[in-house]
Amino acid sequence: MPASKTSTTDSATDKQKLSHTEQHYFDSYDHYGIHEEMLQDSVRTLSYRNAIIQNKDLFKDKVVLDVGCGTGILSMFAAKHGAKHVIGVDMSSIIEMARELVELNGFSDKITLLRGKLEDVVLPYDKVDIIISEWMGYFLLYESMLDTVLYARDRYLVEDGLIFPDKCSIHIAGLEDSEFKQEKMNYWHDVYGFDYSPFIPLIMKEPIVDTVDNNLVNTTRCKLIEFDLNTVKLEDLSFKADFKVEAKRQDWINGVICWFDTVFPAPKGETPITFSTGAHAPYTHWKQTVFYLADDLECEAGDILKGTVTCSPNNRNNRDLDVKIDYDFIAKGVAGAERSKKNENTYLMH
Ligand SMILES: C[S@@+](CC[C@H](N)C(=O)[O-])C[C@H]1O[C@@H](n2cnc3c(N)ncnc32)[C@H](O)[C@@H]1O
């Protein structure tokens, strides 16, 4: 077993050599507040704990890599439930607190913490049996931390090794949110008596992360895309996916709502631990992501909203996302032709 590195403060990565955006990204995880929010998200944190407990026979005597360990919570779950040794890696200074917590909770001999970018650290093992990581961002892919998990998989995971979680999917549905959309846009028509409306296209371009009342979701739901972490490649994270949903009632569709679902590996024959970040599911800190549409679509039950979502990392900052939604709203019945609309909207998640 390698000597514990829990007293080392050196970083394998020279932060000053990182780009400003990268420095800013890792700075954002320095403060305890963001970790408090994640820890207190019990849907998130208990799903990891429960998945580890459900698979404790698989964790027994295994070497585990925790990619982006933060306060070390997942490392401690793994060590507590049978792992032979856990290596936690994080670039942010929060790892110094993780060292204290690991020691305080009696895991110093089982957990090695390494500071630096996962891509730069040298692990005390050539291969690991299991990777655990909480990498998911808003709209699943915002932050692009999955890139790092895929790097860890390809570099360190033994053949047939396990990744927790190993399946994630993005979903979409239509949304009635006229009041908020109007309020948000109308404000710019009269700012202390001046016309500020040129701001409106800028505001429309930014998706909003917020909790959405499930009663406002007025179409069926559709799975946009699923990623199997055992096999997905970096290039698959730029995707183009079709969707088709059906209006459930007479209403307005002012935007679409997106969320993701997460699945952990499970022993054969057992139901996997899963959680959803949808409006129909209990609260998580990921909330939901709303893309307002340029059109307000007047729908009747049975009308179809279909289209394509195109998503890729932004060229200037690859942790941001460029998203394009092409939609074709096909209304039937009274004034169907007038109500039908086709459009293309572009967004930047940043
Ligand atoms: C979403 S937090 C999860 C923290 C912790 N695992 C938990 O579940 O509470 C992601 C963590 O990964 C770290 N991280 C992101 N990319 C990294 C990389 N390339 N190398 C090392 N750490 C990274 C961040 O600093 C952050 O602390």
From TrEMBL:
Set out the biological process GO terms recorded for this chain's protein. Answer: methylation
**Locate the Protein arginine N-methyltransferase domain: which residues?**
166-329
Keyword vocabulary terms for this entry:
Methyltransferase, S-adenosyl-L-methionine, Transferase
> What PROSITE patterns does this protein's entry cite?
SAM_MT_PRMT
One GO cellular-component annotation of the UniProt record comes to: nucleus
The protein's matches in Pfam families, at most eight in alphabetical order, are given as: PrmA, PRMT_C
Q: Which InterPro entries match?
A: Arg_MeTrfase, PRMT_dom, SAM-dependent_MTases_sf
Q: Which CDD domains match?
A: AdoMet_MTases
**Example GO molecular function term?**
histone methyltransferase activity
**According to the lineage, what is the superkingdom?**
Eukaryota
**What protein name does the entry list?**
Protein arginine N-methyltransferase domain-containing protein
Q: What is the lineage of its organism?
A: Eukaryota, Fungi, Dikarya, Ascomycota, Saccharomycotina
> What gene codes for this chain?
NCAS0I01800
